[in-house]
Amino acid sequence: MDTYEKVFELAKRRGFLWNSFELYGGSRGFYDYGPLGSTLKRRIEQTWREFYVIQEGFMEIECPTIGIEEVFIASGHVGGFSDPLCECMNCKEAFRADHLVENVMEAAGTLSAEELTKVIKENDIRCPECGGKFGDAYEFNLMFKTTIGPGTGRQGYLRPETAQGMFVDFQRLSRFYRDKLPFGAVQIGKSYRNEIAPRQGVIRLREFTQAECEIFVDPRNKKHPNFERFADRELVLYSQKAQEKGEPFRMTVREAVETGVIAHEVLGYNIALTNEFLTKVGIDPAKLRFRQHLKDEMAHYAIDCWDAEIETDRFGWVEIVGIADRTDYDLKAHAKVSKTELYVYVEYDEPKMVTRFVVKPNMGKLGPLFKGKAKAVADALKQLSEKELSKDEIKVTVDGEEFTVGSDAVDFAEETVKVSGENVTPHVIEPSYGIDRIFYGVMEHAYDEENVAQKVAESELKGTEETEKESEAGKGESETEGEEEARLVMHFSSAVAPVQVAVLPLLTRKELADPAKDIIVKLREKTLLVNYDDSGTIGRRYRRNDEIGTPYCVTVDYDTLKDGTVTIRDRDSMRQIRAPVKGIENVLYELIYRGRNFESAGKPFNF
């Protein structure tokens, strides 16, 4: 059993992840988040908001998850959002054709369906399920199609990404930010891709959660005002050149920008910000790197693009975040299809005298000639050169129809004018986070199996008073920290742990349960996530909370009734301290959110 199987076994048993539609046999590519999983996921999302909304100041918007067809025609998804599909002619199982040939050639993702078909046949690649032969590969569009409205309705699609809503709302966003570049917007929500053969748990889903930020910047100035915050931060980079050698390297963000490894400061800052976020939510820094897209995989419109990748036990390096400079491609694409100019007017520091070519269509003549299409004809005339406008008969094309315009219907000339600014189509810097993949990465990197006896020896732990008193009270089998050979523990960051504190009465008796419940009220008033557990021996309860990653357990015992103190146990070290009930909520809040040293929070108890 590898780590992936162990993590999923725990996830299902403890209420992190369940197969969707399990009652009806399930369906690949869909998972339910259980009580603990949903909480862990929401805490990851909330931490993301703290980074991008609170710290960076990019406001959040929410757009429909269904989009009309025109949006996805402009974005290119209707015409080009597909994967090569290959079906077994025997068992009819479908597979990604490029995945089938990965073991026999490199850069399989760059091949066309026809080329993949040829490779599959030449290498006699057979179906992994039944050994049957494959048919020809073909392109399969990954968008879910739907109809908006009754009857035939209007063609629509479930969105394959959250980004397009922010591009479509660009004009509104620009006005909201008073047309001052740079500005940005974020969105967290569901996206949908009809994956051909999702077989990797939550790493490849048909319905998944994205957290995306679109930062609109002036293309003439890609310096970041807060660059020094991360300038000297060292990152593990896997650049294009490094991939030729197969060796990642460490470099500061400043060095990477100055040497051209990373295209510019804004991109470098956002790569470092991604690193900061991922390590905070619990991704192991030793299993994190940033890989630059190779030339043959980088989008034709992108200046530079990097993926945050994490190392996993079963799947190797997996992309969880993409950070790209998408230039002005998206805004220009939507401007073209919507026939609406999308730009920001940027004022100069000082007005300039500019000589420019000006075209002045005569609407008095164009109107009677072309009626409802007169404005479109006039706009087309404005795009022509002086040479084209000098002809006796000028031809323009509007909506696929050609029109002939007489030279007397348009004037043109060069003129020198004073201008105070210019219209600029911003470039877009896009950090795009796959929340489900990050969720799995946090789970796998937190998973640990420890030898308890060895841990006890390392931490110099002693037997606890709780277990001794429990035995004296006739509770039955007692469990000290050293009695079990192994413990399963999830080392979740306090920033995202789904349960932050467990409150445990030593025995299921009213005189201990009542003060325990009073403590819970205090902790919840501090907005801490608290679990009450009085089932089983204290040792077993510790183990249950270790398994779900609870950072601290508070045990109420008979000494609590005498001196008003409780035991606080640290998950990772298994050490315990005694601390007063009075002010316990502040102590735990400081331990969780302020990084307070555990030993300073009370009197050492078992070490």
UniProtKB/TrEMBL annotation:
<dbReference type="InterPro" id="IPR002314">
    <property type="entry name" value="aa-tRNA-synt_IIb"/>
</dbReference>
<comment type="similarity">
    <text>Belongs to the class-II aminoacyl-tRNA synthetase family.</text>
</comment>
<dbReference type="InterPro" id="IPR002315">
    <property type="entry name" value="tRNA-synt_gly"/>
</dbReference>
<dbReference type="InterPro" id="IPR033731">
    <property type="entry name" value="GlyRS-like_core"/>
</dbReference>
<dbReference type="GO" id="GO:0005524">
    <property type="term" value="F:ATP binding"/>
</dbReference>
<dbReference type="InterPro" id="IPR027031">
    <property type="entry name" value="Gly-tRNA_synthase/POLG2"/>
</dbReference>
<dbReference type="InterPro" id="IPR004154">
    <property type="entry name" value="Anticodon-bd"/>
</dbReference>
<keyword id="KW-0963">Cytoplasm</keyword>
<keyword id="KW-0030">Aminoacyl-tRNA synthetase</keyword>
<protein>
    <recommendedName>
        <fullName>glycine--tRNA ligase</fullName>
        <ecNumber>6.1.1.14</ecNumber>
    </recommendedName>
</protein>
<dbReference type="InterPro" id="IPR045864">
    <property type="entry name" value="aa-tRNA-synth_II/BPL/LPL"/>
</dbReference>
<feature type="region of interest" description="Disordered">
    <location>
        <begin position="457"/>
        <end position="484"/>
    </location>
</feature>
<feature type="domain" description="Aminoacyl-transfer RNA synthetases class-II family profile">
    <location>
        <begin position="2"/>
        <end position="367"/>
    </location>
</feature>
<dbReference type="Pfam" id="PF03129">
    <property type="entry name" value="HGTP_anticodon"/>
</dbReference>
<dbReference type="InterPro" id="IPR006195">
    <property type="entry name" value="aa-tRNA-synth_II"/>
</dbReference>
<keyword id="KW-0436">Ligase</keyword>
<dbReference type="GO" id="GO:0006426">
    <property type="term" value="P:glycyl-tRNA aminoacylation"/>
</dbReference>
<dbReference type="InterPro" id="IPR036621">
    <property type="entry name" value="Anticodon-bd_dom_sf"/>
</dbReference>
<keyword id="KW-0648">Protein biosynthesis</keyword>
<dbReference type="Pfam" id="PF00587">
    <property type="entry name" value="tRNA-synt_2b"/>
</dbReference>
<dbReference type="GO" id="GO:0044281">
    <property type="term" value="P:small molecule metabolic process"/>
</dbReference>
<keyword id="KW-0067">ATP-binding</keyword>
<dbReference type="GO" id="GO:0004820">
    <property type="term" value="F:glycine-tRNA ligase activity"/>
</dbReference>
<feature type="compositionally biased region" description="Basic and acidic residues">
    <location>
        <begin position="457"/>
        <end position="478"/>
    </location>
</feature>
<dbReference type="GO" id="GO:0005737">
    <property type="term" value="C:cytoplasm"/>
</dbReference>
<keyword id="KW-0547">Nucleotide-binding</keyword>
